[in-house]
């Protein structure tokens, strides 16, 4: 995934330079491809690699976090979460996409398993992950909110890689950009219009910025001793980032009329309750007395 990150960074710099020479940038001219590795008999896509890297890096970082004093879980709980959260991300993401973005899939359930054809919803994956956390917390008699705090710190890894993979796939492009946007791009399937590379906007805000904020809060402050503060920061931060970027992202074709009629995209409507919940967690965490810093981790 470091290759993906460095490639996308180089693309952004190259794109800005090319734009200065006049004319919109064409995604095809950047030499990118949805395929990360092609062995002839097997092709590994960036999107699959992004999911894999996000989950593995999140598991590694969670294991590192719970070795700190006062962790709400032990390594065996982290191992269970790794398994159940992966199921929650995949199943919840696919079902969420069908419910929120492509209801026609529900009439043809055999198509739900065709993950290779694309179509995953972050909000669906989030709900699947919350259910996975609830199950592991209930079985292990863990504090649900504190476990959510620790998981929330790890989520931006996957968001960053996932949005970069969207860019490498040339999908989920942005709205039409004016001449004052020198980095605007012409994407395949998006017509001859120069558009915002909204995938990179999302990678920066939902991924990189949110990642830095949460890592600093966990490692450089006492935030983890205030239950709900980290997960509240994540929910509110992601909601604000997604709500903002949706103004630059082209709505899904099947939901374009819905966005025009309601004034907001489906992604924006889904982030409103998320922001409200995040704000609630934050306020509750701030007004309540912090936990003692001498607590021991569960065995």
UniProtKB/TrEMBL annotation:
The chain crosses the membrane at residues 42-60, 81-100, 120-138, 150-168, 200-219, 228-248, 268-287. Its main location: membrane. Pfam families: LGT. It is an enzyme of class 2 (transferase). Pathway: Protein modification; lipoprotein biosynthesis (diacylglyceryl transfer). Keywords: Cell inner membrane, Cell membrane, Lipoprotein, Membrane, Signal, Transferase, Transmembrane, Transmembrane helix. The keyword Transferase applies. A 1,2-diacyl-sn-glycero-3-phospho-(1'-sn-glycerol) binds at residue 163. One of its GO terms (biological process) is lipoprotein biosynthetic process. The keyword Isomerase does not apply. Its EC number is 2.5.1.145. It is a multi-pass membrane protein. GO terms for molecular function: phosphatidylglycerol-prolipoprotein diacylglyceryl transferase activity. It is found in: Cell inner membrane. GO terms for cellular component: plasma membrane. Residues 1-18 form the signal peptide. It comes from the Bacteria. Belongs to the Lgt family. Catalyzes the transfer of the diacylglyceryl group from phosphatidylglycerol to the sulfhydryl group of the N-terminal cysteine of a prolipoprotein, the first step in the formation of mature lipoproteins. This is Phosphatidylglycerol--prolipoprotein diacylglyceryl transferase. The gene is lgt.
């Amino acid at each position: 995934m470091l290759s993906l990150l460095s490639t996308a960074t180089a693309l952004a710099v190259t794109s800005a330079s090319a734009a200065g020479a006049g004319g919109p940038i064409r995604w095809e001219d950047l030499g990118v491809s949805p395929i990360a590795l092609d062995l002839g008999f097997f092709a590994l896509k960036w999107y699959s690699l992004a999911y894999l890297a996000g989950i593995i890096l999140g598991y590694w970082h969670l294991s590192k976090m719970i070795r700190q004093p006062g962790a709400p879980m032990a390594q065996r709980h982290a191992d269970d979460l790794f398994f159940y959260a992966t199921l929650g991300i995949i199943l919840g993401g696919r079902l969420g996409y069908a419910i929120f973005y492509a209801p026609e899939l529900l009439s043809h359930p055999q198509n739900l398993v065709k993950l290779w054809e694309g179509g995953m919803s972050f909000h669906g994956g989030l709900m699947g992950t919350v259910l996975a956390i609830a199950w592991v917390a209930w079985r292990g008699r863990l504090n649900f909110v504190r476990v959510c705090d620790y998981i929330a710190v790890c989520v931006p890894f996957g968001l960053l890689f996932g949005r970069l993979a969207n860019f490498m796939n040339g999908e989920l492009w942005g709205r039409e950009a004016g001449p004052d946007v020198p980095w605007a791009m012409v994407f395949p399937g998006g017509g001859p219009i120069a558009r915002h590379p909204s995938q990179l906007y999302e990678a920066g805000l939902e991924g990189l910025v949110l990642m830095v904020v949460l890592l600093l809060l966990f490692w450089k402050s006492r935030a983890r001793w205030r239950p709900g503060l980290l997960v509240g920061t994540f929910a509110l931060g992601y909601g604000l980032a997604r709500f903002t970027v949706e103004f630059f992202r082209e709505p899904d074709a099947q939901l374009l009329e819905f966005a025009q009629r309601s004034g907001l995209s489906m992604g924006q409507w889904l982030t409103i309750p998320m922001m409200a919940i995040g704000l609630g967690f934050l306020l509750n965490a701030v007004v309540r007395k912090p936990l003692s810093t001498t607590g021991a981790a569960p065995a």
